[in-house]
Amino acid sequence: MVKLTNAVAPLIHEVEVMDEQGRKKIGHIPGERPLTIYLDKKELVTLMTMGGAPEALVLGYLRNQRLVSSVGVIESIQVDWETESAAVKTKCNTVDVEQKTSRRVVTTGCGQGTVFGGLLDDIDKIHLSETAQINQLAVYEVVDHIRTKPSIYKQAGSVHACAVFKNCGDHAELLHFVEDVGRHNAVDSIAGLMWLEDQPGDDLIFYTTGRLTSEMVIKGAQMGIPFLLSRSGVTAMGLEMANKLNLTLFGRCSGQHYLIYSGINRFIGNTSDVHTA
């Protein structure tokens, strides 16, 4: 069992603003603060985050960057906002962190993201469920649930959201919903929550408000999730990765409109309603 703090930071701040007619009023903006991750006292990276689920964010970051072999090797994650740090202590981590962090790829993350190690090093080791399917009604329910859910974005803007749903055939059940200043933070937080719960991804659907780049596709695949939905679009390399992994990508999801970019063989629905890229 990983020992975790519960260092949730204030997510929204009130500020005085002026509108186009010169009227002063109270507005809301999301929080943003640095969090430097230390793995066994080695400084790894500083993430800019709202701080809504910092322990899950750190755990998911380590998972998706492949800097720890399993959640079982982590003894504790201590987040301290006074020092803006997250100290991770492991028991017997078998990953060569020095070698892994010697190579960096600057990604298309909000601002500039970083991936350690070769982006494609382990892609051939990922095997998604061959039998997983997704129903059109479940797609509609996911999109509608996100549209109607109360959120920081609706109150303050300036954030991305990611969510995972249980794929229940003709409907979908929300399991986790995370908002952060960057979509990569949100997906990493969800990865951390799934890892803590030992939740496999075979019967899950992943949704993001951000675009599906190669890094987002690889993170989804590492989580074992065969279905990725986006309110935004898909990049060429993201599509290439999805085709290689037999992963189904939905983009431009809004209302009852969507585009299926890959993995159409997994889709169950009224084919007359299918929009394909």
Automatic annotation (TrEMBL):
Active site: C110
Gene Ontology terms: biological process: Mo-molybdopterin cofactor biosynthetic process
Species assigned in the record: Polynucleobacter victoriensis
Keyword terms: Cytoplasm, Molybdenum cofactor biosynthesis
Pfam family of the protein (one): FdhD-NarQ
Chief location: cytoplasm
CC per GO annotation: cytoplasm
Gene giving rise to this polypeptide: fdhD
Family (UniProt): Belongs to the FdhD family.
Subcellular location field: Cytoplasm
Any GO MF annotation of the entry: sulfur carrier activity
Reported function: Required for formate dehydrogenase (FDH) activity. Acts as a sulfur carrier protein that transfers sulfur from IscS to the molybdenum cofactor prior to its insertion into FDH.
PANTHER family hit by this protein: FORMATE DEHYDROGENASE (PTHR30592), SULFUR CARRIER PROTEIN FDHD (PTHR30592:SF4)
Protein known as: Sulfur carrier protein FdhD
